Amino acid sequence: MTDIATIGWLTVDDIVLTSGLYRQGVRGGGVLYSAVGARLWNDAVGIHSVAGRPYFDETCQQIAARGIDIGGIGRSEGNGLELWLLHESEVHKQQVPKLSSSDAVGLDGERGPLPPSYRQARGFHIAPQGPASSLANARALSALAPQPVVTMDILSDGFIDAGAYRDLAFLSCVTAFMPSEAEIHRIWGQAEIEPWLRENAVRFGCHMVAKLGERGSLVCEASTGRLIHVPALAVGVLDTTGAGDSYCGGFLAGLVAGRPLATCAAMGTVSASYCVEACGALATANPDPDERADRLRRAEAAARVLPA
Hints:
The chain is of the alpha/beta class. It has one domain: UDP-N-acetylmuramoyl-L-alanine:D-glutamate ligase, CATH 3.40.1190.20. Helix content is 34%, strand content 23%. The chain contains nine helices and 14 strands. The strands form two sheets. Strands 5-4-1-8-9-10-11-12-13-14 form a ten-stranded mixed beta sheet, sandwiched between helices. Strands 3-2-6-7 form a four-stranded mixed beta sheet. The relative contact order is 0.16. This is Ribokinase. It holds the Pfam family PfkB. Residues 133-283 form the Carbohydrate kinase PfkB domain.
């Protein structure tokens, strides 16, 4: 039975790194990177998405070979979401749909309802997708019984309207909300993120997570407003694509396992550390359990609670 399911866009990416390295036809998307991040900690992970018709068979084969359930992946009639991922620095990148790409938001309608086999999952991650679809999924998942753990990430690129997220009432439907620091600045106009995280964690009873890129993450505990900073692990970085999504998957796996919040953030940090060492979600290492446990110990040891 699927224990964790991720919901969102699968993509086929052409990645251009600042080094000049170019990778063509890399399977990606937040739904895949988050599934791979969760799969490092949980053996029963599935994906709910659609893949473009020209790529469907190969994409499903590659994902299944990673040990991820593909029962929730449908076939799109078009090419699916085809992106250029253009890295301008280690932290700044653009996602640009190709001329041959399907409409991103239109793919949300093709995904269809949650497969029956996923409805009893203990945890769900709402990966980047159209805002209307994100919010509808949050409402639908929060109504499931027994109520699952639900985490949510967003996308604020130019090809979607992120304004729908400004009203934070949807936080009452999710267990943890996980935007990036840049998204908090851009969408909610917050010059200082710590008071904003505390205010909304207490107001909505929702864990608030700010992804800080190379500086790690800032996690605010639901209801109490306790802030924890977990630095990124020092590893050899090849490609930062999908690091934040992988973090979300590891974090969700920790919540589903009932781990303390700092440990959840450390698990996300470990998942992200393996992601950035590779180019592409499916190239991410499957680490030896002892090596993974060592990284987790280092990440937990570096975590610190910030003063109130």
